Amino acid sequence: MACATPRSAIQALLDERKRGASICPSEAARILARDGEDWRKSMPIVHAAVDEMIGEAIVTISWKGQGLRTREGPYRISLTTNASDEP
């Protein structure tokens, strides 16, 4: 999967999953990492994209099934109900 931006990587991963499924932010970072590059270096831009997408009500975040209000520590990303209802 080739994605140019963190947002496109997040969206592509979520689009591939079943409705209501979630992804780990590291999955998007791994897509963005160039061959041989440490994917962890991409995590700050993935986190920033998640923050933007939360602000736009595109995604929500949770950990162990519990919704999170702020992005602290480990979390999973899923589409909001409205975002997953879009065609």
TrEMBL record:
<dbReference type="InterPro" id="IPR021660">
    <property type="entry name" value="DUF3253"/>
</dbReference>
<dbReference type="InterPro" id="IPR036390">
    <property type="entry name" value="WH_DNA-bd_sf"/>
</dbReference>
<dbReference type="Pfam" id="PF11625">
    <property type="entry name" value="DUF3253"/>
</dbReference>
<dbReference type="InterPro" id="IPR036388">
    <property type="entry name" value="WH-like_DNA-bd_sf"/>
</dbReference>
<protein>
    <submittedName>
        <fullName>DUF3253 domain-containing protein</fullName>
    </submittedName>
</protein>
